[in-house]
Amino acid sequence: MSVKTIGVLFGMEDTFPWALCHEINELARRRGLSVKGEPVQIGHISQEQGFAYDVILDRISHEVPFYRTFLKCAAARGVQVVNSPFWWSADDKFFDNVVARAVGVAVPRTVLLPHKEHPPNTTEKSFRNMGLVDWDEVFRYLGFPIFMKPAYGGGWKDVYKVHSREEFFEAYDKTHTLTMMAQEAIEFTDYYRCWVAGRRKVKIIPYAPKEPHESRYSAVAGQVVPDDMALRVTRDALALCDALGYDMNTVEFAVRDGVPYAIDFMNCAPDADLNSVGEETFRWIVSEMADFLVERVLHPVPWEPTGTWPKALGLIPH
Ligand SMILES: Nc1ncnc2c1ncn2[C@@H]1O[C@H](COP(=O)(O)OP(=O)(O)OP(=O)(O)O)[C@@H](O)[C@H]1O
Ligand SMILES: [Mg+2]
């Protein structure tokens, strides 16, 4: 019987990819499966190319465009790619808020803003369809404080919290050609980052985003999540990953007046580093992702363009 291969494509991270390959190989040995996990090897790509992998877990193509095309071609040849390089390339945080509302997940009031500066190769003439923004209406709808962040963002880059019109425009002036969202700030009592594996398992991790980067997990480690909150957050996290078609994601919630608001849930290669998430969560991620990938290699699923959101929005029949 030919050995089924799970390839892991990764960048600078140093703990998760190796632990995952090891776990997949251990799992295969324990269960007597003809399955192996190994780092993906790539040279140039030809149009006729076949691929030596049955499944590829992608941890890095959001930062390496060459890898993104490699993965699309692999998918075209029948490789199961996790997460789908097609969908996450099309995805953005504002659209995902629309999806969240359709699947019953609370999100902060949010508006999408026109670029502050003309994107490359455009001039004023490129924007003849644009009217003026009614800023009074925007501020009335959102209220202060407001968070501004890029619709295609990540890594806390270009995120601003502003408390007045003056601060708002000062921040907006710095956003050059980015596509920015402005969002009601949720003044939260608790904050959770949930790791979601395979659209089926959720680990709720108390998180302290206001702490320095290195202590955001440790500062609230051991904090108990009330049962009813755990149920709601688990449901919401799974609903988001189902709707958006992510097999690996982190979903963040800020809790205000007992309601978890989804803040950040478009992370195609979420942090899985031992040094930031800690030993217990790391073991959970490695074990759940290994389980999921082995199941996927044994039982491939038909290619899907995205998650269930077109049904949730009534665009195609249930
Ligand atoms: N509407 C909001 N209300 C309250 N806090 C918010 C809001 N939006 C963002 N934040 C805070 O800003 C942080 C960064 O925002 P967000 O997670 O959306 O950006 P990011 O660039 O994807 O960050 P990262 O990839 O580091 O998680 C959040 O962890 C949260 O603490
Ligand atoms: Mg975040």
Core attributes:
318 residues, alpha/beta, binds adenosine-5'-triphosphate, binds magnesium ion
Q: Give the rounded overall mean pLDDT.
A: 96
The outline comes out as: globular
Going by CATH, what is the homologous superfamily of the domain at 109-184?
ATP-grasp fold, A domain
Strand content: 15-25%
The tally of helices reads 10
The separation of the N and C termini measures 39 Å
**CATH fold call of the domain at 109-184:** Dna Ligase, domain 1
Taken in chain order, the helices and strands follow as EHEEHEHHEHEEHEEEHEEHHH
What would you note in describing this structure?
- With 318 residues, the chain is α/β, with parallel strands linked by helices.
- It has a domain of 76 residues: ATP-grasp fold, A domain (Dna Ligase, domain 1, 2-Layer Sandwich).
- It has ten helices and twelve strands.
- The chain has a four-stranded parallel sheet, with helices on both faces. A four-stranded antiparallel sheet has the order 5-8-6-7, sandwiched between helices.
- The mean pLDDT is 96.
- It binds adenosine-5'-triphosphate (ATP) and magnesium ion (MG).
- Magnesium ion binds next to loops.
